[in-house]
């Protein structure tokens, strides 16, 4: 998961939208005459219109396939999962659907949200990227339960969704781990949404997410 991969995706988005906030707005030379009235670019109708254009690009035909979701070779012995926490629950997501783990960025809400899961947009290297709540998509209990005395650093996961990257805030990231396919195959069944199974890991109960179902839900939330 290189930073350059994320930059390529978000840079293309920036080229397609006039990012005046980076040139004459709060992230530029602050010469925009509208700043006197709006104080910050996120309060401006131009910024909101750019965010709306971004979200419109996610509304792709549902039969379009994402090549990053190709079937896994059966000969693979291990599978790489990113382990992260939302509230009290630990989850695992295959790294093939992940672009990057990034520092937490401010989320700017939109006046007319298309779904409850859509939190707004975040500025990633100068480009507006849709921000979604996995807590809402997975029907989890909100809250950030951390170990007493532990230094916890919330992060944003940049996920390769149809139509472009999306970011999802998480409470904590444990790291990437290679899990034996035999362990994954023996995972207990779960009734949780978009879940392949539940398995023990490092003394925790880990919920292994089904990335195809999850990314389909992400696409529906943005369309």
From TrEMBL:
<dbReference type="GO" id="GO:0006935">
    <property type="term" value="P:chemotaxis"/>
</dbReference>
<dbReference type="InterPro" id="IPR036061">
    <property type="entry name" value="CheW-like_dom_sf"/>
</dbReference>
<dbReference type="GO" id="GO:0007165">
    <property type="term" value="P:signal transduction"/>
</dbReference>
<dbReference type="InterPro" id="IPR002545">
    <property type="entry name" value="CheW-lke_dom"/>
</dbReference>
<protein>
    <recommendedName>
        <fullName>Chemotaxis protein CheW</fullName>
    </recommendedName>
</protein>
<dbReference type="Pfam" id="PF01584">
    <property type="entry name" value="CheW"/>
</dbReference>
<dbReference type="GO" id="GO:0005829">
    <property type="term" value="C:cytosol"/>
</dbReference>
<dbReference type="InterPro" id="IPR039315">
    <property type="entry name" value="CheW"/>
</dbReference>
<feature type="domain" description="CheW-like">
    <location>
        <begin position="78"/>
        <end position="220"/>
    </location>
</feature>
<keyword id="KW-0963">Cytoplasm</keyword>
